[in-house]
Amino acid sequence: MKKQWIADFSLLAVTFVWGATFVIVQNAISFLEPLSFNAIRFILAGLFLFLWLIIFHRSLFRHYTLPLARAGIWMGFWLFSGYAFQTVGLLYTTSSKAGFITGLSVVLVPLFSFLFLKQKPSVNASIGAVLAAVGLYFLTIGDGKWMLNRGDVFVFFCAISFAMHIITTGKYSARYSTMLLTMTQIFTVAVMCTIFAFLFEDETQMWNVAILQKREVWTALLITSLLATTAAFLIQTNFQKYTTATRVALIFAMEPVFAALTAYIWAKEQLTASAIIGCIGILCGMIFAELPITARKMAACKTEANSLRQTK
């Protein structure tokens, strides 16, 4: 139980970093195209982790196997899809709508877990996921100004991809080395982003010094590569083995909450009544999902007490 709480707190810290970088990324891709931005971001993150392993954990490479590589590539594929769809979607929709639609993975994870892994979520976890999804709606688009555009469609595919990434991470994280698995998935994303940037974008931007020297770009690349990529995915890969995919999805639903709070603190954006209701809804969903654990513990305690009384 202690490991589970440490895992949940660590994943919550990761969610805070992701939420805080939403606006930073959106500012950066106004200068550097999205796939090019992600290519540089993940190349930097992969190189940083590779050098760390070479210097401090070189012996780990003896455990690098073909099954581990396949698992890391599969995780990297879903991670690439999520970031690619989200970053491209941000070109055509607002960050608030993107935050809500991305957060729909909180509902998709228990559904996919049941369909692909035959893991049936508890009733309370399912209700908690729905509560969190409703909270996300009020937090981001509760003002009723909803018009579906192509950016929203891109971000919905992003939600599907992130849900699959959570499921695959939970499946493989307990089997293989955290650092090797994380490095493999990060380099997979870097390679795929680079290939697609060459196919669909002006790839010369990736080594355009004038663009890379812009404060909005290099600041975003530094923060996202080290904190939101290397550190974040090391933490997720390491700690998800101690919790469930549904709990992870509920924790990640806090991303737009943190995005709204950091925007309020740093950019002086006002939180509306609808946004506050949404934050409360997400928190209630997370708390509600925890109730089955408490109920089981109470039932176990009652059973133990009854058995003790019968033996006296």
Describe the structure.
The protein has 312 residues and is mainly alpha-helical. It has one domain (2-311). 79% of the residues lie in helices and 0% in strands. It is built from 14 helices and no strands. It has helices spanning 2-20, 22-28, 34-56, 66-89, 95-103, 105-117, 123-141, 150-172, 178-200, 209-212, 215-239, 245-252, 255-266, 273-311. It is globular. The two termini are 31 Å apart. Mean pLDDT is 81; it is low at 294-312.
Q: Roughly how many Å is the radius of gyration? A: 21 Å
Ends distance: 31 Å
* Discrete helix count: 14
Beta-strand percentage range = under 5%
Number of strands: 0
Major sheet characteristics = none
**What is the structural class?**
mainly alpha
Order of helices and strands: HHHHHHHHHHHHHH
Mean pLDDT: 81
Low-pLDDT residue intervals, each spanning 5 or more residues: 294-312
Helix content: over 70%
Number of domains: 1
Shape: globular
Family: Belongs to the EamA transporter family.
Transmembrane segments: 9-29, 35-56, 68-92, 98-116, 123-141, 153-172, 179-198, 218-236, 248-267, 273-293
Keywords: Cell membrane, Membrane, Transmembrane, Transmembrane helix
Protein name: EamA family transporter
